[in-house]
Amino acid sequence: MQERPLGLMIWLRMVRFVQRSNCISNAHLERSGISVAQFEALSHIRAYQPVTQTDLAAGLTISVGGVSRMLSRLETEGLIERVQDWKVKYISLTPAGEKLLSAIYPGQVALQASMFDDVLDADEQKQLYALMRKVQLNSLTKEAPAVDTTGPLDTTETAEPPAVGPAGALDTTDTKEEAQ
To answer: N or C: which end of the chain has fewer CB within 10 A?
Structure first.
């Protein structure tokens, strides 16, 4: 069996965590009639309103086409309004959107925080935040490589990856204020 790099194993764990977290959140938010993506959009709109559709799409984790379809649905449901100003559409929450978001926001935040609070102490959370920030910032410098189609990728896990020693320690001084 081909050995898998530790970086791949970390990526697989992150993907599995995000998928599971989204499933849990979608089940939680389903009672309110919205999805995780819609919650994210409504939260972003509330934070930056009025926001352009372009700026909203840049701040979310879904495609531009997906944003357009989602906004149409949220507008039909009366949760947002789009106001045209010449060539630019500005998006804001309606009173109904604000009421819904205010009702579900605390529970959703608590649910997501519990994913970390239940297993990591404050120092571990700060370290994880700093590490994830470093990885995410590095990802901004990457471009998609050409696809290697020479064979299938075996993603089954058979053993735990090796522990990262002191050489893997991260200086978090640049993110100390953000993590607090």
So the answer is: N
Backbone angles phi, psi at 51, to 5 degrees: -120, 145
d(CA 19, CA 127): 22
**Contact by Cβ (8 Å): 144, 101:** no
User: Per the omega criterion (within 30 degrees of 0), is the bond before 166 cis?
Assistant: no
Question: Quick one: CA dihedral 43, 75, 95, 101, positive or negative?
Answer: negative
> Within the chain, where are the H helices?
6-30, 36-48, 53-59, 64-76, 95-117, 122-139, 176-179
Positions in the chain whose pLDDT score sits under 50? 155-180
- In this prediction, residue 3 carries a pLDDT of 83
Q: pTM score > 0.85 for this model? A: no
Burial 14-30 (b: 16+ CB within 10 A, else e): eeeeeeeeeeebeebbe
Tell me: the pLDDT tens digits for 101-139? Answer: 999 999 999 999 999 999 999 999 999 999 999 998 998
Phi/psi for 124 (5° steps) reads -65, -40
